[in-house]
Write a structure and sequence with these properties.
Layout lengths: L17 H26 L13 H10 L5 E3 L5 H6 L4 H7 L4 H4 L17 H14 L6 E6 L6 H12 L4 E7 L2 E2 L2 E2 L10 H6 L4 E5 L3 H16 L5 E6 L18 H8 L3 H11 L5 H24 L18 H11 L4 H6 L2
Parallel strand pairs: 1-2, 2-3, 3-7, 6-7
Antiparallel strand pairs: 4-5
């Protein structure tokens, strides 16, 4: 049976106020701006390996704008657009992708965990955080995101089953960009949609046009409200496409058809939403230029602040791991603080 894919822009619909629509577009434009600049910085040797999110802004921003300051975000490594949307400063992300310890210390007023690098490990953590909301009788919702490849990991299944059994206030965004690094969807799963996996655990799931920011935002808002009412978890599968490489170390030309990429660019989420705003007289070149100038100034300030920080102290590498240092961490910390190398520290154990 054919499944409904929720979308609005293809039908010429924009069921948002001008304020909501502009907010959605500005957040997406900011995410795209940062992503393009981050790739340039990496090529200049000013950032480490970086995972571009170009093409996936609608999915991440739509989820981010559906949350409020009470809610928690548990991201994986590609959720820079989501992090920017919920208030993580550009400076913080620059330092994070420089692997500077200061980049790991997110502003305390933001309910955001550091990005998870191991695939799917954020899902059980997000479920645990949602369980904490239940125990503490707090009204927060936990939002997490994952790629389609990560849904084949055991952690994904365990986290979803746990969330379903305990009816936890959890929203799971699956960014189905068609590839698990280089492996296409049809070679990694028999399901046509990841949503079917969630429904197997008893979790309601919706499939949306992941390049339609309006659709993602409205479905995410519904899922967040549902979770806050105590009705349990929801999975949102956003069908999208990664327009860039898996990371700046990847070359997608080795495994993707150029014609496939060309078709995907025709559905780039940013110009799709901009056209819808322009048709209604809600956006124009003057607004675009003004917003771009503001983003340029924000990035320049972020880079200035990031560049002004001193290099990290060697011992900082273990300071953030545990609330209290264990014996091995303490030994390494003390040795590094005295100017010894890691090799000397371990030799002296």
């Amino acid at each position: 049976m054919e499944r409904e894919i929720v979308g609005y822009l293809d039908r010429g619909e924009l069921p948002l106020s001008q304020e909501e629509a502009e907010r959605l577009y500005r957040a997406m434009a900011k995410a795209r701006f940062f992503d393009e600049k981050a790739v340039t910085l990496q090529r200049q040797g000013r950032l480490g390996v970086y995972p571009p999110h170009r093409g996936q802004e609608a999915a991440q921003v739509g989820l981010g704008l559906a949350l409020d300051p009470r809610d928690w975000v548990v991201p994986s490594y590609r959720e820079n657009a989501l992090l920017l949307t919920v208030g993580v400063p550009m400076r913080q992300l620059i330092l994070l992708w420089r692997t500077h310890p200061e980049g790991w210390r997110f502003p305390p007023e933001l309910r955001v965990l550091n990005p998870f690098i191991p695939i799917a490990t954020q899902i059980p953590q997000a479920a645990g955080l949602a369980l904490a909301a239940r125990y503490q009788e707090e009204p927060w919702v936990v939002a997490t995101a994952i790629g389609d490849g990560g849904t084949s990991e055991g952690d994904f299944a365990e986290g979803l089953n746990f969330a379903a059994v305990f009816e936890l206030p959890l929203v799971i965004l699956v960014q189905n960009n068609g590839y698990a690094i280089s492996v296409p969807r049809e070679r990694q799963m028999k399901n046509r949609y990841v949503a079917e996996r969630a429904e197997g655990f008893g979790i309601p799931a919706v499939v949306v046009d992941g390049n339609d920011a309006v659709a993602v935002y409205l479905e995410a808002r519904w899922a967040v409200e549902r979770a806050r009412r105590g009705e349990g978890p929801t999975l949102i599968e956003a069908l999208t496409y990664r327009l860039g490489p898996h990371t700046t170390s990847d070359d997608p030309r080795r495994y993707r058809d150029p014609e496939e990429e060309a078709r995907a660019r025709e559905r780039d989420p940013l110009p799709r939403l901009r056209r819808a705003l322009e048709e209604r007289g809600w956006w124009d070149e003057a607004k675009e230029a003004e917003w771009t100038r503001a983003l340029e100034e924000e990035l320049a300030q972020a880079l200035e602040e990031a560049d002004a920080l001193p290099p990290p102290r060697p011992e900082e590498i273990v300071e953030h791991v545990y609330a209290e240092l264990g014996p091995d961490q303490r030994m390494v910390y003390d040795a590094l603080k005295m100017g010894k190398s890691l090799e000397e520290a371990w030799r002296g154990r």
